[in-house]
DNA sequence: TACTTCACTGCAAAGGTTTGCACAAAGATC
DNA sequence: GATCTTTGTGCAAACCTTTGCAGTGAAGTA
């Protein structure tokens, strides 16, 4: 019943190899023959069997996309962009959800390895060493984690944290809390590092609360702690937690931004819809999805696979090109941040250390410039 | 480099067919041999090549999931549930996004057809006849659309609309607007049909506004119309539109629920986070994803495929089992609905037509009971 | 003892495609 | 007009696995 290359060959009176070439190497076949074959194929509704093709070429034209939690609104735009980009290049995308579980991640990489040309690992919870080990099994591109020797797509949350802290300090806040993210998250560590440094540089105190689950309830659960900590501003690991915190503070009768200012990270679409609208560090999630697919596919076309004539070639020139891309973030100021107790007064560090509220203290952040591609 | 069944055979001193059977028909191989083979396979890190397996068995152990818009928060829970359910049964899921475009849908079904054992079509925008035609190419399960002769997973939005209208009328509203969804949406038609009937039965007027894009901005854009229509309550096609409407009304200075009550459909997680919290008809999206996968896989195991010994068998007993499942919806009352102008007065239709506010008028709705599975 | 049954394993074909090589015919070069 | 390219096509092997059939012993039966 399913129409194969053989049916097309019979219908157009050529050998199957000619049909094959009509699709995979059109320049090798006579234009007249080509149109005839194409017409027959169209007629019969022929579609090449990708499994058979994969078997011999060693490329499946599939990629795997491993996500910590599809239901987390941070990811869908990334998934959407990655799928779209992949499809433009004639790749299909397996999407898999790990429920934030490192063991599930590992198992999924194994399960997918034979079936895809590469895997996008988004916000992994695994250890670095495990990721490196897995990368020997299947080409990997990591999103939201920096790993030497592996292609990574990063969002410059460090810069975002600095902007956020400076924004808050500029508004007159000196006692700031950071709501940490989940254990094992590179983003969370990076955020903490940059926020601490920025707070120190600006003469503010930073209290770290966490780790927390990166969810609304994770933020809600910390509302009481936030109030008790006596801070006047909070930077949350992500918007979901920030929104949960908004809920929690509301329930406690704490007004935002009059009593406490709140800043999120991600700029999920939801953050425009809360009351007050959330001030947040926008991360370019769709761009990250696109970029990650591009990097994976570029790597894929460079490396030869199991095809017939391989063998020695792999051992010789394998030197992988491991680019790392850092995407820019941007502070989006909305209504959840307002003046703090020191509003209008001179900032403690400002006169001594820099040119004013928009000074960019950069105490040892990532050296990769925003938007740059650096091969290593 | 990649380890094949042959490597395992060599290592364990048996023929490759024995290795194959160790995995696909363990009861046919001597327990001692089996453990030896398994040990070798484990050692070498062997994973069967699914492309090769697909080639001969005719089943890929993949399914396709075609979604109108991944970024629409209605879908991620469905995707997540479907993926999880599929994985439990050793299937992987291709996710593809159509951007609400019917042509893209068709193309995707074609593209995926050869590569999957079946496709889940979620909230399709295609015509019924096209869907039926495509279903001859690859097994299909349709979500959110009723099609005779095809397995469908439906949410009882009709019941939901009735509950919503009755809730509003019970609160004293008589002039109600329905914000329609996108053209081609079965859910939108169904909603409209049931809401009209329910409004008529309860003696209220229903104004239909639309069709609209099923997004926040789609709802926002209708705020002005809603005010001009002079209604005191609105039922929106989905939560996203309802939330957009909330925004729009707020911008116009119309207070919710004091001046206008708003009801959404879906109960996306976001609807708990707006101010006021949204009253909505909860649809069981995760259950729909699970159910759809189950139905597809059940159908899949029933129908034989291209395998060696097929042939006549297909022609004989092909009679597809096309179950249709209707999942129950539930009205969740939150803060966006409040008393209307007729609050406290006697309802016009109530005394004449039924037993009171929770009467269930059912003027020609679907005959399939909620939660029932009906083979046709 | 001779025969059947049974459990296990090996053999080889098949599935749809790609691709290196060989070959033929036509055109180019001298 | 003989040789060399070029262009287009066919041939057949290879990719990795599954599976019907046949074969081998050993155990059970008469």
TrEMBL record, chains A, B:
UniProt-listed SUPFAM superfamilies: lambda repressor-like DNA-binding domains (SSF47413), Periplasmic binding protein-like I (SSF53822)
Keyword Phosphoprotein included in the entry's annotation: no
Keyword DNA-binding: yes
Domain HTH lacI-type: 3-57
Alphabetized InterPro entries for the sequence: HTH_LacI, LacI/GalR-like_sensor, Lambda_DNA-bd_dom_sf, Peripla_BP_I
Location of the region described as Disordered in the Swiss-Prot/TrEMBL record: 334-376
Record's keyword terms, sorted: DNA-binding, Transcription, Transcription regulation
Entry-linked SMART domains: HTH_LACI
GO-annotated molecular function: DNA-binding transcription factor activity; transcription cis-regulatory region binding
Designated name of the protein: LacI family transcriptional regulator
């Amino acid at each position: 019943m399913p129409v194969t290359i053989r049916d097309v060959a019979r219908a157009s009176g050529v050998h199957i190899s000619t049909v094959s070439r009509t699709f995979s190497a059109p320049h090798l076949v006579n234009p007249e023959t080509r149109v005839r074959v194409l017409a027959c194929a169209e007629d019969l509704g022929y579609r090449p069997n990708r499994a058979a093709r994969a078997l011999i070429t060693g490329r499946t034209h599939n990629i795997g996309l491993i996500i910590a939690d599809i239901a987390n609104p941070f990811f869908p735009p990334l998934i959407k962009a990655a799928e779209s980009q992949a499809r433009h290049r004639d790749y299909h995308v397996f999407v898999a959800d790990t429920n934030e579980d490192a063991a599930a991640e590992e198992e999924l990489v194994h399960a997918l390895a034979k079936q895809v040309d590469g895997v996008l690992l988004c916000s992994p919870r695994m250890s670095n060493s495990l990721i490196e080990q897995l990368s020997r099994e299947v080409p990997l591109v990591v999103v939201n984690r920096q790993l030497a020797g592996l292609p990574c797509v990063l969002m410059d949350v460090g810069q975002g944290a600095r902007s956020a802290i400076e924004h808050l300090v500029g508004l007159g806040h000196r006692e700031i809390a950071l709501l940490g993210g989940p254990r094992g998250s590179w983003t969370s560590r990076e955020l903490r590092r940059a926020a601490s440094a920025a707070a120190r540089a600006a003469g503010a105190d930073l209290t770290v609360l966490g780790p927390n689950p990166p969810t609304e309830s994770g933020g809600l659960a910390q509302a009481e702690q936030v109030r008790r900590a006596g801070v006047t501003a909070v930077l949350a690991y992500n918007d979901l937690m920030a929104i949960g915190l908004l809920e929690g503070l509301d329930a406690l009768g704490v007004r935002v931004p009059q009593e406490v200012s709140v800043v999120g990270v991600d700029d999920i679409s939801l953050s425009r819809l809360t009351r007050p609208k959330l001030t947040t560090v926008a991360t370019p999630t769709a761009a990250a999805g696109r970029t990650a697919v591009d990097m994976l596919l570029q790597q894929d076309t460079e490396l030869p696979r199991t095809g017939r004539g391989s063998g020695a070639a792999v051992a010789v020139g394998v030197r992988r090109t491991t680019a790392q891309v850092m995407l820019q973030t941007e502070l989006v100021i909305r209504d959840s941040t307002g003046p703090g107790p020191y509003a209008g007064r001179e900032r403690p560090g400002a006169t001594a250390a820099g040119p004013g509220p928009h000074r960019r203290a950069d105490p040892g952040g990532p050296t990769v410039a925003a938007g740059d591609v650096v091969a290593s």
